[in-house]
Structures are given as structure tokens and as C-alpha cells.
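Reopening this ticket.

The earlier resolution said the output was attached, but the attachment link was broken on my side. Pasting everything inline this time so it's all in one place.
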Amino acid sequence: MRIRSTIFRILCVIFAVFIAAEAGAQKKKGEVTAPPDIHAVSKSENLAFPAVPDKQHKFISDYMLREAQAIVKQGYKVETERQGEIIVVTIPASSLFMPNSTELEIAGQKLLDPFTAYLKTEGRFKILLAMHSDDTGSASYLEKLTGDRLKAVMGYIEKHCEHPEQIAGYALSDKEPVRPNSNIANRAQNRRLEIYIVPDQELLRQATKR
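Inline output:
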């Protein structure tokens, strides 16, 4: 029995080594690894995955640049991250909600409509939503405010897109200000929704065929 147990353990080790080697070989080839649950990881982890292999970087960055330019033409504030691979759209909270309100305005709904198009194809993009506030109010109030506003935004997009499972959201309260909360103008800039458009595995597969 001990001999069989030892042999079994040896075989398990060999199998594990084989799997690890195969995974390493796939990574070198630029193949996409298994995705994490986008609803169970942090924003930074979601923004890091999937990594774009060097060979596909130009295709992806050029593709996302064209998308970013199209969004700019619609009047949105747009930036890019990860060397042009990720689009970040910033919408002032005042364009979505009345002061201290968590009810999405009709005008705000219209601002969100263009982003549902990125969720038409399964696995092509993932959308990350980050809701921010200034530091006016208690920590519990700001957490609830950004949490409820995030739910309103996510609920609207999920209702009007084909793949709501490709959306993840983060209520970040006043934790990531873009300006010091020292005056009215700065606080207004801190109250914002950020929409991250991240190329996902289907787009990477398309890039590998180029």
C-alpha cells in the first residue's frame, strides 16, 4: 500500500510539472490564460488582465486609439492607460445625478448609452465602472452615496446591453481624488464616474490572426 501511495504521489507531481510547463509554453506563444472572475478581483487586477502579448500590442493599441477618437468626437473626456491598450472615459457625477441624489437622470442615461455597444459581443471587451466622490461628508455617507450611484449606473447599462456579465463596478468613495479637495472646482472634478474599456480575450484572439 505504501509503495502504491508513493507511486501515486510521484505521478501527481509529474502531472503537475507537465501542466505548469504547458502553461508556460502557452504564455510564451502569446496564448490567453484562464480569466479571473472579474467580479471577485480588485480594479487594478482587472485592469492588468488580460495582458496583451508584445506581438499583438500594436494591433490592440491602434484599435483602441480609433475607439478613443470616436468617443472624443461624441464630446467625452477620454484618456488611455497601459500604453494605449485601455480607454478611460470620465463623466462628471453632476452630468448623471442631481446633488446628493442616487437617481440616474434621463440626461445621464443618454450619456451611458454609447457604452452598451461594447458589450454586444461575448468576450470582446469588459467594462469597469468606478464611482468617485469628494470628501464632503462622513466615510459611511460617501461609501453609501458612491455605492448607490454605482448600482444605478450598472443597473442601467446591464438592462440595455447583451452581456452584463462583462461589467464590474467599484464604489471608491473619496479614496482616489484627481485634485486636492481644497475648493469647489477641485471637488467637482473628484465627483466622477470613470468607465474603463478593456480589450478582452476575443479581441486578443482576433489580434493573433493578424
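Reporter confirms the inline version is readable. The CA atoms of residues 158 and 164 lie 5 Å apart. The radius of gyration is 21 Å.
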